[in-house]
Amino acid sequence: MANKQKVVEKRRQRRKFHVRDRVRGDSQRPRLSVFRSHRHVACQLIDDAAGRTLVSVSSRDKEVRDSIRYGGNRDAAQAIGKVLAERALAAGIRQVRFDRGCYKYHGRVAALADGAREGGLEF
């Protein structure tokens, strides 16, 4: 079983690097990086040139946690996307590059992207 987990992790790492080779963020157009677990969704805007996080949101944040019931579903992901867009616009960021990481673009990842677009971000 442990060997299978190593194989799964290697594949995930390969997919992540494959996406990251093509997506780089800068101060004008930061990278929107997505992380999802079974119970939570998180995302952040990263300036790769400076190596720092500009804006971040998670389903574990106090103000977001009160508005959603469970952090591991599509409704929560869409709400996270909208909150991220609000914070990004407040920070003066309108355009981003989407980094799905090792996850397929469907389900919660797509819902987060749709929520961010609804909030006013451009991909």
Layout of helices and strands, plus pairs?
Blueprint: H1 2-22, E1 31-36, E2 41-47, E3 52-58, H2 62-65, H3 74-90, E4 97-99, H4 108-119
Parallel strand pairs: 1-4
Antiparallel strand pairs: 1-2, 2-3
- The succession of helices and strands, N to C, reads HEEEHHEH
The global form is globular
Give the integer mean of the pLDDT values. Answer: 92
Beta-strand percentage?
Answer: 15-25%
Helix content: 40-55%
Features:
123 residues, Nucleotidyltransferase, domain 5, single chain, alpha+beta, four-stranded mixed beta sheet
Description:
It is a single chain. With 123 residues, the chain is α+β, with helices and mostly antiparallel strands. The chain has a single domain (2-119), classed as 2-Layer Sandwich (Nucleotidyltransferase, domain 5). It is built from 4 helices and 4 strands. It has helices spanning 2-22, 62-65, 74-90, 108-119; strands at 31-36, 41-47, 52-58, 97-99. Strands 3-2-1-4 form a 4-stranded mixed β-sheet, with helices on one face. Helix 3 packs parallel to helix 4. The termini are far apart.
What's the short version?
The protein is α+β, with helices and mostly antiparallel strands and 123 residues long.
